[in-house]
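Fold sample X.
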Amino acid sequence: MTRPLALLLLAAAAVATALLPQALSPFHIRVLQFFFFAAATAVAWNILGGYAGYWSFGHTVSIGIGAFSAAHFGLIFGHGAGPAGMILPVLAGGAIAGLFALVIAYPLLRLRGTYFAIAMLGVGQVVAELANNLPVFQGGIGLFLPSPVPDGMAPERFYYYAFAALLALCLVISWAVKRSKFGYALLAIREDEDTAQMLGVATERYKIAAFVLSATLVGLLGAVYGYSLGYFTTPSVFRLDFSLNMIVFALIGGIGTLFGPVIGAALLLFLTNVLLSGFLDIHLMITGALVVAVILLMPGGILRAGATLPWKRRAKKEASG
């Protein structure tokens, strides 16, 4: 795809995103709002899990830290009125999520594969329990966040645009990482970390940077998600399904690709919220079957389907043999 065509498609997508709420019902706007949030978290997770190959099963900890940090920052310093009043609390949520990731990065990133994934799952559970049981965090009784929605604007439209902007931010940062020396170093770590280290790649530094960047972006999303709820408790934001969704979306769309997590989120959320909305008793079974089918038939995800379908691999092998 040529650069002018890519820019034209991006401009068309931006215009469509801006105008779409005018033609949709509040329900469908809320569905798209959640799609932008879910896709953005998957894109942010992909920087660590897809580019560097360090799968985190506990990335929901950054969502929770972002939401709690934004709420407590607002309680201490004030939230302010209107959309501008949420900017500093949201930035604080992202910064504190990134700082927490920096603190735990060195010991955790010494683990690899399943050990790192399970360790992150444990971190998420520990932080959730602390937030729920320590009175200082107020996770058990819940926290209120004032509405930043301007007068005359529907809340679902405001958060639709807020999460769309954050998805765009995550995609731009992910694109910049993928095309940079930083991104090439992460890909080298994913393919063979020991060899990359022997070739002079500063593996520890790059892994920590990817971990902190990914956590910061998810923390920003968690802070805005807290505002969208208005009132939340620990179980509202420290949700294990959020972490699993990030992984599943990336797997289905194409892990390690730029738009794979977005495509995976779009497919699964369209399936569960639109096509199977009237079959709540079986939609989890059908969704699970779809995930298994995609992983078995297209292990590289939808974006790599042409190269990873079994008959394509077999034909390629025969041609080379």
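Fold sample Y, listed below.
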Amino acid sequence: MAGRTIVSMMKDEAPFLLHWIAHHRLIGFDRIVVFTNDCSDGTDAMLDRLEALGEVIHLRNKVPKGGKPQPLALRRAMKLPDVTESDWLIALDVDEYVQINVGAGHLDDLLATAPKANGFALTWRMRGGNGRVAWTDDPVPEAYPRGAPDLFRKGWGVKTLFQPFDDMKLGIHRPTVKGRDKGALLARAWVNGSAKPMTRGFLEGMWRSSLATLGYAHAEVAHFATQSQEAFLRRAARGNVNAKPDKYDATYYAIFDRNETPQSGLHRHAKPTQTRVAQYLSDPALAALHARAMDWHARARAALRAAPDYAARMEALAAAAQTPFEGLDDILFPQPLAPQGKAMVAKMQADGVPDLHIARAVARSVSQMEARRDAADARELLAKGIVPDHGEWS
């Protein structure tokens, strides 16, 4: 039962499915467990065929009315020996690619950088739309070869590749523990993408890197969260795994459409990945299902373009795409705030405070909180003789 496993949740992902699977099988994942829900494009049928071909394990995630697909799938995954008895495990979405920056770009190369570690907290690298407006069928890593700089703090979420342990509770970013006893977490030897130890504060429950724990030297997760403006509208139409209304709006695009730096780390796998995709499509049954799914998406895009609000929504995204990196603190983005923070924003808006003033106040408050965490993490690491990759610490 041992293996290196990805758990994923999908809905209507047919245009991206084969390339994403091929890439991750190529770099060393030998088991991909996929939960699907409410597919209209045939992603589920493609996964059934891929399962018959031995490439994935596919389960249909029946979500009750009002339910959230992602948490439900994670709970169900916890009951699967194919998941819990893995040697290594990570939860990934289809817009996330594990990118290994050391050696030949294989999981073995990453694991060799910290042979005593039992977890790698891999930080996102947000990858933007690269100025693309219309949909493209090009493979995602080649279509969007630019992304955020290292110090794009808003994009420092992590995905954790880890060895399963007793009493773990799966999460989309990292596992936690069942109950309140965090001893099992604190016993973990987790490192970052530069093979440097993560801190106690992270182990106890954080899901984002700090300036002191940020590390991209050996591995990262390329997160293609926005893509072209038209692709982003299609993503919004599909919904999201946590049933959050209006998550994918122009503000989200303005924040995460980051294209400041060239990012070619995934390109080393372009040809072998495409070769593997071609091998998949040499199966007549899968090829027919894929063609049918692509036709479905072509019709969906045609309907999108014919919608009366299409032009206005595209104009909003075009304006959002002009947001400079240094102007991000001027954008009010309450989505990631805790309920108390969101309530404060709502009250300020009700009191007539301009959004620009609220955004800057939120940015100052968050910056102060993050600076405290940065300093605490740095003190802990420096006390152990570990120098963080980023920041000036004394």
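Sample Y note: DSSP finds 15 helices and 13 strands in the chain.
Also: The two ends are 47 Å apart (CA to CA).
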